[in-house]
User: Fold these one by one.
Assistant:
Number 1:
Amino acid sequence: NRKAVLITGCSSGIGLALAVRLAKDEKKRFMVYATMRNLAKRETLEKAAGRTLGSTLEIKQLDVCDENSIKACVDSLPMRRVDILIMPLCRNAELGMIGPIECQTICEMKSVMDTNFFGLVQLLKEILPDMKKRKSGHIVVISSVMGIQGILFNDIYAASKFAVEGFCESLAVQALRFNLNISLIEPGPVITEFERKVYEEGLKIDLSKADKVTADMFTNIYLKNYNQIFQSLGQTPEDVAEHTFKMITMANPPFRHQANHPYTTMTNLKYVDPNGDLPIETFYKMVFEHDKVFKASLSFLKLLRWRSHNSFSLDKDKNAS
Ligand code: NAD
């Protein structure tokens, strides 16, 4: 009895890595419905899936911003059954993802929310009622550390992830009543095509609408350090896929899981100070006071990554004594 797993955004990044990881499960526990918005982009997944294609993995079209596409996809599944719904989902890295808000249009900002938040809600609306009826199911949302903490020049992206987190946190209470699990996976920086494109689009931003200080901050501080942060802290999509695999195979999965262990040093600041000033002041110091603190922080985080290399908090079931 294989579990039916529906995954969004499988043409690239985390979605692709995850679809392949689950399809190649040695125990063949999953039937993976690897979906993507544009089937013309299926080739990379087909190659990576190899022999699992047509046995434990099927590719389907799904655009979370299109109600008809959602319905057609779910209706095409045997008995419309989805045991595990996994949503690594992000609007493509066009304008509007990073940068000063003065240089982004409301239309661009709305399109980020449309995919990252409303798309996710729309898909869930199609799948949740069946899960409630069956009183079983696991919904896994690939959020971000930016769903916990805002980051300089990621205002809209972070807002979309905060929206997702608030939504899931509210729904999780109701889900308990139906024996359903909801989990958020919160990766830190992940080295994917997406991240490279976001950077390239960042270089193209027309900064003429921003004042000189803001424009300078974006170009000479944010973009300058962007690659360094990904190099020192970046995870691979396969690593995030592994965390997700563990999450869906445990008996009592946690609601939240941060997938980038060294980064928890930063996110913990939020919980240490209920006034909320500590993380903001720390980020300010890292950015402006400047190079020395920033570099020292990166070395510290690197050291932590080295120390935590083999530790994996999902190895311990939350209900295990
Ligand atoms: P990615 O761009 O490779 O993946 C995003 C996927 O979403 C793409 O396959 C894209 O086609 C798909 N998508 C976009 N609009 C869609 C729509 N309307 N319908 C269906 N699919 C749609 O990037 P990724 O890094 O693999 O991102 C996956 C998830 O991980 C996202 O939720 C992202 O926010 C999260 N995340 C990424 C990073 C990072 O640094 N890359 C860090 C933390 C969290």
Number 2:
Amino acid sequence: MKAFIENMPKAELHVHIEGTLEPELSFALAKKNNVSLPFDTPQALIAAYDFYDLPSFLKIYYAGMSVLIEEDDFYQLTWDYLAKAASQNIVYAEIFFDPQGHTIRGVAFDTVIKGIRRAQCDAENKLGIRSQLIMCFLRDMSAESAMEHLKLAEPYLDWLVGVGLDSDEFNNPPIKFKDVFALARKWGLKLTMHCDVNQKNTLEHIRQVLEEIEVDRIDHGVNALESDELCELIKSKGLGLTVCPVSNQFVVQSLTSGEIRDMLKRGMKATINSDDPAYFRAYLNENLIALQQEGDFSRSELKTLMANAFSVTWLPESDKRAYL
Ligand code: HPA
Ligand code: ZN
């Protein structure tokens, strides 16, 4: 089964590029950029990873960004992820980035997006892995800041396939960003938002992403299973759900294999993803292998999960067919 998973051509639709920062690269960049890290070795840094809910993860995730300063740093970060992804037989990836996590530290938007884009182009040419970029807004920052960043992206619209919403969901409902997402839609971008596992007001947040924002996809969205009505709506719209088993395990102590199977039984388009693989110490293959073991998933179920991923990508329909 492990070989079956490893050999399967795969798509990944929920991976934060800053969440792919491996401790070794973090140390190399810290040295180059004269940034001091509060750890002596990459192993000591990993040992300090202590996540049990979304805020405890985000604190470490944002602290990790301090070493990313120059365009080449964003290039190296993205190249390393795409090389790792290609080595896992991922043939297509949609990658999130968090520009506000960088501009707030004085790193220019252009520096971030140019480094990422250059690595995407090189990886496609040299490694054959295709990718598209999704710009995320931090929901614990203001709607005004999100709007400013959308406008910073205007010269680069050809480099973006969509926008997303991440960071701390507590008291930051989707509706807060209604105008920002409406403008992004007007500019031709696809829309997705995180509805993280077990958040306050989760069902109301899922309802808002469906009915008020009218997203094209939902990131996580596992709690929709608590409402038959929301499940029906997701199914009728054919929306993909980007579920992240190992990420979920830190919050709910389960890879949510039961919930993922339930989604498949209901005909919902669940997909499997790694979220922040360097922090959670599991890339896509490790997520799939762990999930298969916990839930005793069959080959046919794994094939369905991967076919779902390709079918809900934001590739042009004609390109999508080549993978299905
Ligand atoms: N949820 C919310 N924000 C995030 C995540 C996540 O899983 N990863 C990086 N930022
Ligand atoms: Zn995420």
